[in-house]
């Protein structure tokens, strides 16, 4: 991962240590012997109005990742208890509502419970941070790579096989893309109101308004959610300026099976995506190792837009899966096209014109608008007034 200095965006990853459940004799999903599941997590948090919310969510003790693992363990314990007393899926385990299935139609333990655990963690973290009454908020894009590893005997030989999936939860505009070597797919949802008709409708239905900021009597900048003046309709934090029924912490969650031939995940704050599209970014660094790719993307964004925003980029290469005992495979180049192509996810729409709002504009929004419009004299006065 690589971040430009001095900003409010942060990257998170668990390497080299993964979070594991199960061992060679027992599995978290109650599967066969010599089978276990393992999780790796990665995240990007881009703060606004200060660093506090981003740092809170990235914390390794009480941030989003450990909260997700706590909720996951509770769900597994409840499912095990229900199984012991004979409660079936209909009475005891409601996880099937949001579960994800592998290609053989079977749902694995951790993977089934991850979407709900992530949603619970986002909502809980938002409430916990807002109790601190600190004036900041953050985007959050958190992904768990799930591995189900099995060890089998085939013709007297021990063979290890691995099935991988990724579950991505996000609020805000820090995006995650999957590149399988042939297709680039968005795994997160852009919650900027200028890009999402669905979010605009939700905000208005909840009693909010959408309009551009009025600075010195003139409308400028992108459409924002009012009250509060946020560009995004989903964040963590922002309890000081946003209505909790309008700007919500509930994440969009996407589950996707990863191709057997390997793939690449690219996470970044909006400082990258405002300069490069997901497809352009992924294709530009396909032949680069992860470290070089992250550095190249940061430099490309800085060159395209100048030093206007902090940029955090994480590039994760997921290796090819070992062959299963019943499958014959041929050697493939890194990031070769998947033979079981995944469906594309809808991308954000084009910006639309919004009505001007005459509401009071927070100081940090004025400072942001000054950067966007190049009015650095006004920005200096605003920042001086805040001090």
Written account of the structure:
The chain is of the alpha+beta class and 387 residues long. Helices cover 28% and strands 27% of the residues. The chain is built from nine helices and 16 strands. The strands form three sheets. Strands 2, 3, 4, 5, 6, 7, 12 and 13 form an eight-stranded antiparallel β-sheet that branches. β10 and β11 form a beta hairpin. The chain starts with a strand and ends with a helix. Mean pLDDT is 75; it is low at 1-7, 15-33, 89-107, 325-360 and 372-387.
Features:
single chain, 387 residues, alpha+beta, eight-stranded antiparallel β-sheet, five-stranded antiparallel β-sheet, 9 helices, 28% helix, disordered N terminus, disordered C terminus
Draw up the topology in text.
Blueprint: E1 2-3, E2 9-13, E3 19-21, E4 35-48, H1 52-58, H2 64-84, H3 109-130, E5 137-138, E6 140-154, E7 157-171, E8 175-179, E9 184-186, H4 197-205, E10 209-215, E11 218-226, E12 236-237, E13 252-257, E14 263-268, H5 270-273, H6 278-284, H7 290-305, E15 312-318, E16 355-356, H8 363-373, H9 376-386
Parallel strand pairs: 10-16
Antiparallel strand pairs: 1-15, 2-4, 3-4, 4-5, 4-6, 5-12, 6-7, 7-13, 8-9, 8-14, 10-11, 14-15
Summary of the model, kept short:
28% of the residues lie in helices and 27% in strands.
Distance between the termini: 33 Å
- Helicity level, as a percent range? 25-40%
Query: What spatial form do the alpha-carbon principal axes imply?
Result: globular
Radius of gyration from the alpha-carbon trace, in angstroms: 22 Å
């Amino acid at each position: 991962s690589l971040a430009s200095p001095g900003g409010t965006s942060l990257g998170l990853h668990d390497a080299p240590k993964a979070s594991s459940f199960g061992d060679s004799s027992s599995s978290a999903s109650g599967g066969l012997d010599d089978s276990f599941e393992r999780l790796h997590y990665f995240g990007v948090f881009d703060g606004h109005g200060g660093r506090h919310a981003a740092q809170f969510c990235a914390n390794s003790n009480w941030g989003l990742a450990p909260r997700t693992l706590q909720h996951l363990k509770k769900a597994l314990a409840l499912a095990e208890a229900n199984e012991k007393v004979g409660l079936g899926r209909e009475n005891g385990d409601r996880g099937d509502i949001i579960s994800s299935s592998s290609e053989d139609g079977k749902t694995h333990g951790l993977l089934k419970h991850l979407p709900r655990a992530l949603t619970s963690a986002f909502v809980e973290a938002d409430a916990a941070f807002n109790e601190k009454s600190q004036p900041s908020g953050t985007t959050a894009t958190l992904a768990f790579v799930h591995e189900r590893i099995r060890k089998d005997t085939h013709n007297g030989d021990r063979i290890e096989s691995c099935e991988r999936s990724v579950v991505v939860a996000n609020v805000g505009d820090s995006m995650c893309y999957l590149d399988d070597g042939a297709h680039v797919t968005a795994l997160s949802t852009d919650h900027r109101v200028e890009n999402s008709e669905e979010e605009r409708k939700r905000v208005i239905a909840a009693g909010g308004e959408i309009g551009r900021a009025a600075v010195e009597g003139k409308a400028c900048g992108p459409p924002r959610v009012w009250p509060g003046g946020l560009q995004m309709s989903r964040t963590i934090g922002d309890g000081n300026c946003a209505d909790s029924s309008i700007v919500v912490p509930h994440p969009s969650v996407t589950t996707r099976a990863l191709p057997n031939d390997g793939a690449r995940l690219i996470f970044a704050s909006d400082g990258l995506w405002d300069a490069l599209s997901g497809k352009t970014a992924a294709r530009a660094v396909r032949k680069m190792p992860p470290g070089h790719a992250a550095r190249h993307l940061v430099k490309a964004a800085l060159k395209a837009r100048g030093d206007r925003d902090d940029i955090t980029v994480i590039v994760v290469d997921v290796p090819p899966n070992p062959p299963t005992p019943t499958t014959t495979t041929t050697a493939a180049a890194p990031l070769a096209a998947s033979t079981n192509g995944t469906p594309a996810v809808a991308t954000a729409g084009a910006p639309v014109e919004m009505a001007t709002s005459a509401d009071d504009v927070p100081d940090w929004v004025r400072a942001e608008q000054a950067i966007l419009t190049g009015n650095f004299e006004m920005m200096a006065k605003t920042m001086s007034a805040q001090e």
